[in-house]
Amino acid sequence: MKRVATKILCGTIGLLAVVLLTVSCGGGAAAGKNQVTIRIYQNQPEYTDAFNAYVEAYKRVKPNIKIDMEILQADYPSVLKAKIASGNMPDVFASAPGPELQQYDQYSEDLSNQPLAKVMTDSAKAILTYNNKLEGLVYKIDEFGIIYNKKMFEEAGITELPMTRPQLEDAAKKLLAKGHTPFSAGYKEWWVFKHVFQQFQAADAGLDAGKVVNDFVEGKTTFADHPKLAEFFDFIDFTLKYGAPKPLETDFNAQCAAIATGKVAMLIGQGTWAEDTIKKITPDIEIGFTPYAITDSKDDTVLTAGGGCVIHINNKSSVKKETLDFFNWLFTSDYAKEWFPKVAKVISPINGMPGPEGQQLPQSFADLAKTIPPKGEPINYSPDSFHMKFGEIMQGYIGKKLSKAQAIAQIQQAWQQLGGSK
Predict the structure, then answer these.
(1) How many domains, in total, are found in the chain?
(2) Contact indicator for 344, 47 with CB cutoff of 8 Å
(3) Residue 47 sits in which domain range?
(4) Which helix (H) or strand (E) segment is 148 a member of?
(5) Which of 65, 22, 87, 16 has the alpha carbon at shortest distance from 45?
(6) CA 188, CA 62: separation in Å to the nearest integer?
(7) Inter-residue contact 416 to 385 (CB < 8 Å)
(8) Taking 50 as the threshold, does the pLDDT of residue 31 lie above it?
(9) Bridge partners of 170?
(10) What is the mean pLDDT of the segment spanning 326-330?
(11) Which residues, at least 6 apart from 249, have a Cβ–Cβ distance to it below 8 Å?
(12) In the prediction, which pLDDT does 207 show?
């Protein structure tokens, strides 16, 4: 048996991160004659090891299948559009949920009648459904909060999780008094801003986030009509005041390393996916979620959760059958019971699947959710093209190239230009 070695070229999140998985096995000419290649293009480089694992497992099931996987984070939406425009459409591609389901509807295979749909939770299918079609699948459900180092909180004498901004500031001052830097804010990453901003969307006077986005897109409302959205800027300033230096040079990996090595006590803009990266550095670290305490009122303290990345199967793919077989296997085989909770260590979209093995953040989120009902994932009402522009604007604000008023005006203009929920 001849096995072609797996080739991996991998960068960090926020930089160009390309992973090429070229997998084949079989004997001599027969294997080459019957070989089929599935081209997968997606983001989420933090799960590269998990993707490697399912490719390795599947080649034992289907030796004639070759999988080429390209993973890109920073400019993913732009590059995907360029691939489509050039006729270089991959067999599998990723998008954000919400309005991007409509945007990529014409390219997406309806998975409603596939075996994987029968095992998927109703909440996951709700994220993925547009025009009565199941537009794709999700690998995981994301949960969001401020990640904190329990030992550092204990050393600073913080005995209760802060539920208001004054309490959060008090906690930050106690951490500083013990020589600890309170926050790491990875503002080099455009997507960190959307994870923070959605907390303010969720707290926006109990209004429907989709309707509010529609109103911004149609020019019917402004930040002046939504004071809780405007407080987002105060919160960003707050994280800068009590944060580590050079936030515009700090990416995901740097954030995880900072909390894992005790350089900071809290991470802003991250979620459950960060735990594995943190624990690869410090396996015995104790971490949890504290909610986003964004105003002076406990009523505005929020938790958010949802599915942030949709995996579509190209409905014009020449290897559509083989691609469907692959993902049906991933969701319905015995290997699914291994991959989701133990390898990827994610909150699975599959009915009855155990929770992620050995993970602290999902349990912490579940404990908080007993008293703070999660409010979905409002970022899904806007496309990633908007969020990329939003991140660029906020980087300009933090770098003092834009005033608050200028940043707000540009965000409102970006919504009108780039669209959102309908």
Answers:
(1) 2
(2) yes
(3) 2-141+308-343
(4) strand 146-149
(5) 16
(6) 41
(7) no
(8) no
(9) none
(10) 97
(11) 188
(12) 66
More confident residue, 9 or 162: 162
Distance separating alpha carbons of residues 49 and 53, to the nearest angstrom: 6
Structure token digits, residue 376: 């979905």
254 lies in the same domain as 384? yes
Which CATH number goes with the domain that contains 118?
3.40.190.10
Predicted confidence (pLDDT) at residue 25 exceeds the cutoff of 90:
no
User: How far is it between the farthest Cα atoms of the chain?
Assistant: 70
Return the CA Rg of the chain. Answer: 22
User: 185-205 pLDDT, tens per residue?
Assistant: 999 999 999 999 999 999 886
Q: Tell me what the mean pLDDT of segment 316-339 comes to.
A: 96
- Would residue 234 count as lying in a domain? yes
Instruction: Confirm if 258 and 244 have CB atoms less than 8 A apart.
Output: yes
Domain presence at residue 350: no
pLDDT for the residue 29: 36
Residue 353 inside a domain? The answer is no
Task: Report helix, strand or coil for 42.
Answer: strand
The Cα-based distances of 163 to 153, 268, 291, 295, 371 in angstroms read 15, 16, 7, 9, 12
Q: Are residues 163 and 113 in the same domain?
A: no
